[in-house]
Write a structure and sequence with these properties.
Shape: elongated
Number of strands: 48
Strand content: 15-25%
Helix content: 25-40%
Largest sheet: 5 strands, antiparallel
Number of helices: 24
Oligomer: single chain
Amino acid sequence: MKFIDFNNNTHTKRIVGIILVLLSTPLFFFLNRVQKLGTIKEELFASASRKGECFQGFCLGGDPEASIISRWLTFSFEYMELVLLGMIFAFVISGIVESFIFPRKNQTMLFSPGLKGIFRGYILGPALNLCSACIVPVVNSLKNKGASLESVIALTQGSSTLNFLSIIMIFTIFTPDLGWNRIITGAISVFLFGPIIARLTFGWKLKKEKTEQIKSIDIEDNISFKNSMKEGLIDFVKITFSNILKLAPIMIIAGFAAGLVIQFLSPGIIDNYLGNNLKGIIIASTIGVLINVPLLFEIPLVVSLLLLGMGIAPAATLLFTAASGGPITYWGLAKVLPKISVTYYALMIWILGISTGLISLLIININNSGIYGGIKLTNNQPIIRESKEITNSNISSQTEFKEPEIITNILKEHTITNKQLTNEDNSNFDIKYFTQLDIESLKGPTEVWNYRPGVAIFDFDRDNDMDFFITNGNGYSNILYLNNSDGTFTDIANEAGLGDKKLNGSGVVACDINNDGYQDLYIGARGFNGDGLDFRSQINNKNTEFIGIEDRLYLNMKNGQFKDITRKAFNENLNYRSASSIACADVNNDGYLDFYVTNLIDEDFFMSSLFWPSHPGHYNLLYINNGDLTFDEIAKEAQVQGPQVIMLNPEGKEIIFKDKSNKEYMGYNPDVKDKNLNRVGDPTGPSHAAVFFDHDEDGDPDLWVASDGDQLHIYRNDSANGKILFTHISKDMGLDIIGNWMGFAISDFNNDGKQDVFITNAGPHSRIISTGMSSPEPKPGGDCKYHEKYNLGTCLHSFLINKGIFKTENLNLIPKFEEFSGKINVIPSPFLPAEATIKNNIKPGIDIPLGIGAYDFGYGVTAFDFNNDTIKDIYWIGSEVGRGEGPGGNIYPSAGRMLKGKSDFSYEDITIRSRLLDIQGINYNNYFKNLEENTYPDNKYNLKYKVHTKYHENGKGLAHGDLNGDGYVDLIATNSSGPIWSGTLDDAGGPFYVWINGGGENNWITLKLNGRMGIDKTGSNSDGIGAKVYLIYKDKNNQKSIQMQEVIAGSSYLSMDSTSLEFGLGDIEIIDEIRIIWPSGVIQKLQAIKVNQQLDIVETKK
């Protein structure tokens, strides 16, 4: 029998039906899926970025504050709207098939038992491109016309698992192991499910299957083409309407049921139940056979779950089972097949799903392919080899301890004690809390639209009070607040020439580059989120117009105006590489300040380690000041552009990629391209912050760099004879520790005359039981949880105490810093203790973090003596992914911590009492007033008043300075803008806070240093950056003590503290000596200095 007889009008109808299918199918693809093929890469990156929750329209997550019913209904309606076109297409195609291609009143012998029927089902299924539910009307019609069970199953599986667009998308998105798993399991299901089910149902020889004679097609020769089309159209309307009535309600119910299940998915749930193990595979297979998804939607579902931490083996399982069947499919097939056959069908999908997951798990264990993450954006897969790097090493060649010469000299001249205050002196300490300035005091904006806003505190107009500058995002003006000297501030950015709305700002530093006595501004910029472009696709050194991702340099014109000198200053070396923090110092001691710029990677690619085991950044830059407002970029020659990122597998072996020339890169995939097919990133890690300070007391600034998901990088300044050169000594110091390093606070925390270092990290969240703390299972990449899990690094803050200088066997001077983060006792806050300080919150079998190691995530950090008791205190803020009331806000919930230093070198958490929570809208007065006497709040009480990390902002920049000239140091903190739930998901500005210190009775002194380059072009730089200041004084008991600070420009994340040095003095009334070691080498002494004053000190002539 012929399938098509051109002399027969019914067959002519069939031709028309085939044409309609051929026309409607491409139209559906064009309207619904094909146009998205070209955006897969961009959408994958966006889905992994901090603002992304969706891939190809499939979204997970919802407003955590909304009820589960509200979230379920919102998701389900959005989901149904998304799949509406697919449902319409399914009903249209099924109507065409039943009314034109295989008319209802005709029988067909095309789908007879045996291999021919199976093969024809396999051919027709992928051509129809219907999901497993949408194919039901078609297969039911064919079954009623005599099609065999074998061919019906083949048609169902072929349409849902082997349609050509799904194959294209799968191999575009997923790694080959997942792609081939889907193809092979789809083929097995097409060719073997039917025969096996038929024989289980009807016996080996199929004798029990109905074998009534299939009638020949009733050929109507005399019907006209017009009447044939009319008849077909009427049938089409009836059949389509009938299918809608029968199937649409069930599809809608199934969609809402799936939406309800999805509301319970979270990284913690996925981590616990969908990992790379047998349990995860069985659960994934069970989920797959119990849900129906629209055509191709199993792909974004699996992508979303992979990004949330699902293992690759259960992903392979779900990729097949979710496409194959579901309740609607089983219900529809049960109308024309024996129910036992449908049961066998569901069971075989489940078993084959488990089998493919187990095979995938075996491949992972053999090839270690689990590190790839299952998602593929390039064909360049890494190789594994023995590591040449040994991290966390110790100093093995110490031969001699050497006290810094300046300390030695002071000790010779003075008897210094380590005791500053007695415990009794400190026991009745009454906290003077900070007050947040309101809109009456800030005459201008109080929020920014920027994911990485930085802040710099500086006296830009030299009127002896501190102004401040905050960077904003593209489309918004930066903010320059002029201090009105009356407790108010006015934004004058536009009037000052700093209001360019194109600039997509990040870090900022204020340094006097031309030694005219006025600080100039270097403003970092970063790539645009969502454009899919790295800097190589946008760099344009010839164009005088800025696009917004270029750093800027503004010269202070000394008249309230700033002039953009970026092009002249940097020429073709202008930075486009997504700057983070900037530090300045006189690297070569020529009297002119130089810049070091840390670079991250374009925001679109920041989370790329979710797709492959690499974590690239961009090379950092070192700009050397030529003294004529131009700069040379020499980071590579000076060996500070950044080493390759360290990327190790769980066994500690290197993960290596090769480029086309066979050059090797650890942790960097050179084949990753952006939207314009330009290479993404550089073979180094992303750097968050940098700080210059003289860690070895040899008179030149050394460099520390906080790298994200990589080692801490420490460079010794070995410049000599006109050549600028740094040596990487992290390993020699035993500090080559991998972490998510964020920001630095440099201070002499124990008042021994040597500078110590506090470095913020991602915190102890991975140790905490609370589901709110959960995040995806770590894979090789930038997440410190992975490095910590396999003893390759840490997520905890680092508190490094300077133990002096060691001379090694090869006569190198190496500073020794001892890790104290777990040794320093911290008294927890009774109002809001850190989660990790509560023993019951720590996961079983996990070491309980001690000391400062138990405290929350941090970005910006600063050290200052907030109550002027001579002991340095620490404050930090920071969060990641999202603010507490937005998507991802529960992953790193941190609202800032204020730790007050005590006389015994311990700390007390006074965050609540000092009123420094990084949370909007807290009424502290009511919080404390309504608290019952002699009681501490429980969780319910704290939630009522928003005194809870659940409501945290997304903290970033932080700086300190005395804004009102009262001798007590104030704070400014910035927060990311980003989405929040407010009924719907809306973008909101990030608030910044100006916190004014409540003051007190303790004495103080503030020193502003002025190098002679600003006077007669000799000596040190005008800002005095790099100068070290020592204060020696006697306390009430006539015991002498010492405090030390170095003038530093840039250290805190994205931000810069005031370069004025603020010293708290307790009850000290006379400072015996102020000794200054200038960068020029000049040693200057001032004696018998009165307290409670701001003292301007000019460098003496050499």
